């Protein structure tokens, strides 16, 4: 039975909600506040922040696939999504207590680290809902729409933080700038934003799998875990897909982490200009995702990812060769147009590959492939920069990762879209028939 428009809207609204965490906490506001005001100095602050993100990546690797398997078996994606979301929002709200002093440094790292793990785990359950909400021929459209909403929601929340809290002098609402209250209050706004817009997905998106007791879900989910991991290793298509995503996500992560540093070092952008460029890059990524919403359903998810990666590779190469500041702004924002489509189409591609009874577990692998080697890109960039004494040589690592991801993806067969609305066949099938259908589909992916 096809999900109603309310369920689809609730799902898209969740993307809109959690964009606030990435923009306000991990990218633009709180990360800068931590390195500049909480840590002893910016260099040590950046190092501690990187180590915290690495530790969060390890926890995500350990938790995402097992929790996905348990959610699949227990029919409890919504309550598990709600739990992870509440944890993420709670950690975000608690960042208000982080004062500009070294004594609060550990608290800040713990809160952001736990919030980051909760964020990634929440996306496992959230992404697994996608195939139940749209017909196979419209998965790409909905995935792109959600991804675009995520960029838009995050940027609007960021804009409100800057306009209402950070920029006004004197500060509004009686906030004390000596205690960094205008900046700390952005965590309160981001946390309330999450709670305000995330809850509909936890209530209105239908649960397709039959509900099972928690003990049964735990036992069967962990029993299924080995089968999911074996299928991922033995299935050439899935293995190549995860390798491809691992490579190009490392490239995109490194691009966003070091793009501002490169802009400042090679083109003389000030801190304010770097912020403006970063915001513009996110706007372009959101517009790109929305613009590709109808393209993907016409040409397929794999072709969309390949096209986006080809454009990203070409534009990244051009950015290494040019020297004009104006050209950098133009090419940089053009590059942003293809970031959102690459990410959103990779989500819908896995949604088409994953068997119905193990979607959350497969999206656990999806989360894992985006985080487990997140240190490789920055480490390779640092080594190349030091070896050649050149920022341009270091940034060339991004081109290699993007191109490598595209080449790996070429060997992944495009999954055939099945006709009919989601659940139309599965709702009428007996468990044995559904299991046989999943096994046949898995055999096709392993071929």
Provide a brief overview of the structure.
This protein has 18 helices and no strands.
Characterization of the model:
Mean pLDDT is 81; it is low at 417-439 and 441-447. The protein has a single domain, classed as Up-down Bundle (Growth Hormone, Chain: A). Helix content is 78%, strand content 0%. By secondary structure, it is mainly alpha-helical. It has 18 helices and no strands.
Number of strands: 0
CATH class value: Mainly Alpha
CATH architecture: Up-down Bundle
Q: How many distinct helices? A: 18
Tell me the layout of helices and strands:
Elements: H1 5-28, H2 30-38, H3 42-74, H4 77-94, H5 105-128, H6 139-166, H7 181-204, H8 214-234, H9 236-267, H10 271-291, H11 295-299, H12 301-321, H13 325-336, H14 339-353, H15 359-371, H16 376-388, H17 391-410, H18 431-446
Helix pairs in contact: 1-5, 1-6, 1-7, 2-3, 3-5, 3-8, 3-15, 4-5, 4-7, 5-15, 6-7, 6-10, 6-14, 9-10, 9-14, 9-15, 9-16, 9-17, 10-13, 10-14, 12-13, 12-14, 12-17, 16-17
């Amino acid at each position: 039975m096809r999900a109603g428009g309310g369920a689809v809207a609730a799902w898209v609204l969740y993307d809109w909600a959690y964009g606030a965490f990435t923009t306000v906490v991990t990218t633009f506001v709180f990360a800068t506040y931590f390195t500049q005001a909480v840590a002893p100095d910016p260099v040590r602050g950046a190092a501690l922040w990187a180590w915290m993100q690495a530790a969060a990546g390890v926890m995500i690797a350990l938790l995402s696939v097992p929790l996905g398997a348990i959610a699949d078996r227990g029919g409890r994606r919504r309550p598990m999504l709600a739990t992870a979301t509440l944890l993420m929002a709670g950690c975000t709200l608690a960042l208000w207590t982080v004062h500009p002093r070294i004594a609060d440094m550990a608290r800040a790292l713990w809160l952001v680290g736990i919030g980051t793990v909760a964020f990634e785990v929440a996306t496992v359950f959230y992404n697994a809902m996608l195939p139940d909400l749209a017909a196979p021929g419209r998965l790409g459209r909905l995935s792109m729409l959600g991804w675009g909403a995520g960029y838009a929601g995050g940027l609007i929340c960021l804009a409100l933080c800057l306009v209402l809290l950070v920029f006004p002098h004197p500060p509004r609402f009686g906030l004390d700038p000596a205690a960094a209250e205008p900046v700390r209050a952005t965590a309160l706004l981001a946390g309330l934003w999450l709670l305000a817009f995330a809850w509909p997905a936890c209530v209105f998106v239908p649960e397709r799998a039959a509900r099972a007791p928690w003990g049964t879900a735990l036992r069967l989910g962990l029993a299924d875990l080995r089968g999911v991991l074996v299928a991922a290793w033995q299935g050439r298509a899935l293995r190549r897909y995860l390798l491809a995503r691992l490579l190009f996500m490392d490239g995109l992560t490194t691009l966003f982490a070091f793009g501002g540093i490169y802009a400042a070092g090679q083109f003389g952008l000030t801190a304010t200009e770097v912020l403006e460029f970063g915001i513009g890059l996110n706007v372009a990524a959101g517009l790109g995702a929305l613009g590709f919403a109808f393209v993907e359903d016409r040409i397929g998810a794999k072709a969309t990812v390949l096209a986006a990666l080809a454009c990203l590779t070409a534009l990244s190469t051009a950015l290494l060769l040019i020297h004009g500041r104006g050209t950098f702004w133009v090419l940089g924002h053009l590059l942003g147009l293809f970031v959102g489509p690459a990410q959103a189409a990779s989500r819908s591609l896995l949604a088409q590959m994953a068997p119905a009874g193990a979607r959350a577990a497969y999206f656990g692998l999806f989360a894992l492939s985006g985080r487990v080697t997140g240190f490789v890109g920055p480490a390779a960039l640092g080594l190349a920069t030091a070896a050649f004494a050149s920022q341009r040589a270091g940034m060339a690592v991004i081109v290699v990762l993007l191109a490598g991801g595209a080449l790996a993806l070429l060997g992944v067969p495009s999954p055939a879209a099945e006709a009919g609305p989601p659940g139309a066949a599965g709702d009428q099938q007996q468990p044995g028939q559904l299991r046989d259908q999943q096994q046949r589909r898995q055999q096709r992916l392993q071929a």
